[in-house]
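Table S2 (text version). Query chain:
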Amino acid sequence: MSALKQQLADTIVTSMKARELERVKVMRNVQAVVKQIEIDRKIELDDAGVLEILQKQLKQRQESLAIFTENGREDLAAKEQFEIDIINEFMPKQMDDDELAALVNKEISEQGATSMRDMGSVMGALKTKTAGRADPAVISRLVKEALQG
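Corresponding structure-token output:
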């Protein structure tokens, strides 16, 4: 079992003992998504796979939060924010903008990338190096800016 799946299971048990029912609900939901994907694909996910699922779950909730906030549904927005906070506990520390920009520039120079045609290979390499620690949309924007001059 991957360390991240074990951490999720341990946290569920701890939260159940502390009678934090809403927290348990969110974590069980995430755990169910992980198990469903493992069953569908007939594989056991490693930490990278679990992290990818956590990122997707986080993104879904952030999109819902934006919609609920825009439509004045503060009750539903608060619920989504609560779930985002819980999922974030399992995410690795996020890279700051300076750290990310330095990594992007380093990767571009290492690959000798000079135009937008090279963006795919740069993004592929950065995706593995920043897994779970940076938003792919931010990375994409930085790479585009760097390649366009």
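Notes on Table S2: The mean pLDDT is 90. The CA atoms of residues 110 and 122 lie 10 Å apart.
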